[in-house]
Design goal:
By secondary structure, this protein is α/β, with parallel strands linked by helices. The chain is built from eleven helices and twelve strands. A hairpin with a 3-residue loop joins strand 6 (115-120) and strand 7.
């Protein structure tokens, strides 16, 4: 009878060390992961008394990643030791911790107190544990709900920064609906911070009284629900596809019922493949929840084929092309950029 060594020791990995990264990669990749140190803030290794790695765990922001344990140690406290250690680290900085894992691991995390938010078989599930959870976000939405709204639309925007294209899409939705809930991506992974983006949108839509701005929190295109959105990968693969499904499913199962949303507006996507595929995922999933996807042709400059995009605006900011910039953004955005130079 083999006796399993449970005299565990936690070691912090130097993610800038080729040796350490190789050590973790050779352990974790055969277990079905593809470890990429560029996508984590920190990694730990769990070793036995002989110094042999028997488990790993990482985090990025408040999201746990790459939690894996060697087969022969799966009936030991190894998994709980790794998860609890990382959770304790993150709870010193965050009110909620998320875990991005495979659906077959749901039961393990639920055993440690995590609650399932949604899953996209067979690749991903998202669970959370903390003091501010999706239950609190739902209460925030319920408090913001507008009465007597039959035609209820939604838009999700990052607005990095707010352009005439964004305003055009919002105005179209405003004309066609009783209420428009505008979800602003809260994740701070853009050139412009959330607070700046929120203020530019607010200033730019003051003339639209039926538009209600809402924070996306951790549940609308965030690092917990859709990390690939912020990576803008050149190749749209199965991993990114499942992340889109996960994000849209969370929107449909947790947000749509509270606000009574029956439409979601998007602009046509001609530049970013990730966003284009996200729109395709919505076209498939939204109707299952009785939500209509309405795609509005992207606004152009003077009815040409020159489409407006935030990426073009950022390019004009970088090059200092003020005259071109003025054509692409509302006066409120232009005045802000003029008074607050941005380094890109």
């Amino acid at each position: 009878m083999n006796v399993i060594d449970t005299n565990f020791k936690i070691e912090t990995i130097d993610i800038n060390s080729k040796y350490d990264v190789k050590w973790v990669t050779e352990f974790i990749n055969p277990l079905g992961f593809m470890y990429e140190p560029i996508r984590v803030d920190a990694t730990i290794a769990l070793c036995n008394s002989s110094g042999v790695i028997i488990g790993t765990g990482s985090y990025q922001g408040n999201v746990l990643k790459y939690l894996a344990v060697a087969d022969e140690y799966r009936e030991t406290p190894a998994f709980a030791t790794i998860t609890t250690h990382l959770f304790d680290l993150l709870m010193d900085r965050h009110k909620t911790v998320f875990v991005y894992t495979k659906p077959q691991n749901i039961v393990k995390f639920e055993g440690l107190g995590f609650k399932l938010i949604a899953k996209a078989d067979p690749l991903y599930a998202v669970l959370e544990l903390g003091t501010h959870t999706i239950k609190d976000y739902k209460q925030y939405l319920n408090d913001s709900k507008q009465p007597n709204s039959k035609r209820t639309a939604s838009i999700v925007m990052n607005c990095n920064p707010f352009t005439n294209g964004h305003r055009y899409l919002i105005e179209q939705a405003s004309k066609e609906n009783d209420t428009v809930y505008l979800f602003v991506v809260e994740e701070d992974r853009s050139v412009f911070t959330f607070n700046v983006r929120w203020d530019l949108i607010r200033r730019g839509i003051k003339h639209l009284p039926n538009v209600v701005m809402l924070k996306g929190s951790n549940y609308v295109i965030s690092g917990a629900t859709f990390p690939s959105y912020f990576l803008k990968e050149k190749s749209f693969n199965e991993i990114t596809q499942k992340q889109t499904e996960l994000d849209v499913t969370i929107f449909c199962e947790h947000i749509v019922p509270i606000l009574g949303i029956n439409r979601r507006y998007v602009g046509t996507e001609v530049y970013c493949k990730t966003t284009a595929e996200y729109n395709k995922a919505m076209a498939t999933i939204l109707p299952k929840y009785n939500v209509e996807l309405i795609e509005i042709e992207r606004k152009t400059i003077n009815n040409s084929d020159n489409y407006i995009s935030a990426s073009k605006v950022r390019a004009f900011i970088k090059s200092g092309d003020i005259e071109e910039l003025r054509k692409y953004v509302p006066d409120t955005t232009f005045n802000y950029l003029k008074d607050n130079p941005v380094n890109i």
